[in-house]
Amino acid sequence: MRWIPVVLLVAAAALVAQPGGTWRAAPEFLPLFAPAGPRAEAYLAYVSPFDLDTVLGEIAADPALVRVPGAWRPRPLPPSDAFGQTGRYDRGRLLRLYGPTRARVARGARLEDGRVREAWTLISPYPRADLARLDDGTLLLVLRLP
User: Fold this and answer.
1) Is the dihedral of CA 57, 59, 61, 66 positive or negative?
2) Any idea where the domains of the chain sit in the sequence?
3) pLDDT tens, residue by residue, 65-98
4) pTM of structure
5) Among candidates 133, 110, 128, 102, which has minimal Cα distance to 47?
């Protein structure tokens, strides 16, 4: 099944807007952190000006969150672990940008109609899309599952 990006954006915006409307769509991150090719269409990106703890507090009441051991628990990770290896970002530049700072990362899944339909990765602080500096807010990367 091929996802239609506009439909995904509308569906994800409705889901992501639940934490108080603090998110803005951030498609500029997709060329960096989504895989190349048709698989990229399954990814969405959003940013919030709030830190990871605040964001996790906002979404905590969401009944669609899958609550399994370790999910949604922030962990300090080096950038390569936080952002993975499938993106097209400059790994050396991102590593230099973070320097000794670790990204705080929380991961988990969301249900839709009783099935896991999204895998979320929340990262704070996050790099600007030009990899020139870190922002104190939170980047949300969403993988929509068929």
Assistant:
1) negative
2) 5-144
3) 999 999 999 999 999 999 998 889 999 999 999 9
4) 0.85
5) 128
